Amino acid sequence: MLKGKKKLEEVPPKADNRPLSNIDFSALLNEPAKDTEPELPIAKTAGLGELIDESYTLLRAGNFERVTLLAKRAAFMDLNSSLPLAIQKCADFWLEKKRQYNFKEANVRGDFLMESWQAFIKIVVKRLDTDVDRAIFCIKSYVFAQIVSEYERQLKLADSFELYLKLGRAYKIKGEYDMAINAYSDAVAMQKVSSQALAELADCYAIIDEEDKAKVLFREAFYHDAGEIDLALLESSLILNLKERVKALGLESEFLNEWMAVYGVVWGVFRVARELKPMEYQKLNQNIHLLRTEYTEKASKKAKPLLLYRLFWFIDYHRAVLDDKTMAEEYIKKALLEIRFIDERIYKDYRI
Predict the structure, then answer these.
(1) CA of 283: how far to CAs of 288, 291, 342, in Å?
(2) Residues whose CB falls within 8 Å of the CB of residue 342, separated by 6 or more in sequence, listed in order
(3) For 63, 66, 224, 327, which has the most beta carbons within 10 A of its beta carbon?
(4) CA 183 – CA 288 distance, rounded (Å)
């Protein structure tokens, strides 16, 4: 030890020997308690209805932690109500997903939230016995605002067909159909023959009652590759009604999409046609020839609806021909005879 330095000794604090009656405890009582639940954004005297309403506001803001606390309080206020517990289950699910989201790479966050939404509907919402529509709406508003933000951020870095498609789906689920149409249109501009993109764009137009546009686009989508279309992503009554009617016919479920194309024309759903360009007409003729061979020589079940649908397109093309009506009528008669040979019932129901 250095000379001239004295070791400092710890001096214990003096005991407060005042009588308890003379000690002011107000400062201690007003200090926030440690290791307690987060402060709730609503008065402790609030009723059940106020707690539920505040929970909806917090769900829309993505404050799932506080929702769980409010739901617990609400549950003790009315033991007979199942709504607080149902709201808590929804909030608990998204609280965990939000924590996981923060650790995800930036380029997969949008996909993670979309997958989480699908899981939420499947494993939480469908198992609830209580009507939680308002809670679901509030959660959807928050979640899909985040999804849209993630996809738009990625699109600022580089255009992508897949990202435009995903962005369109996010806006569609949000109920912002005009924005969805813009995103789907951008996707179609990048891949003009994508049946999936065309079908989802058509679906949006059908939902907002622009049926002529929807019918043209659906007709186009089912022409390029009907089998590519994921019917689970379509929700307009126009397409759902067609789907159910075709299923009721008892045709091969494996080729449901292809038969939807045929009956879409027969029943007038896809009867709004567009004019084919010369190159498109040549390709149509080639497809008809190939499918005719597959159907007659290989007995392909899939080739049958595909061939019928293309014969409808062939007839529509010649109906629009203005320079040589006589020749056009001959082509139409031959096409109708082929349709009759392939399927008598389709021939009888089909109207030019």
Answers:
(1) 9, 12, 21
(2) 295, 304, 307, 308
(3) 66
(4) 33
What angle in degrees, to the nearest 10, is found between the helix axes of 256-266 and 303-319?
Answer: 30
- pLDDT tens-digit series, residues 226-269: 999 999 999 999 999 999 999 999 998 999 999 999 999 999 99
Contact by Cβ (8 Å): 156, 176 = no
- Non-local (6+) Cβ contacts of 78 within 8 A are 48, 84
The token pair at 64 is 């799932």
CA-atom Rg of the chain in angstroms: 32
CB atoms within 10 A of CB 69: 19
- Please state the three-class secondary structure of 181-244 as a single string: HHHHHHHHHHCCCCHHHHHHHHHHHHHCCCHHHHHHHHHHHHHHHHHHCCHHHCCCHHHHHHHH
CB 263 within 8 A of CB 351: no
Q: Spell out the residues 6+ positions from residue 279 whose beta carbon is closer than 8 angstroms to its own.
A: none
Q: Could you tell me the two tokens for 233? A: 């992503």
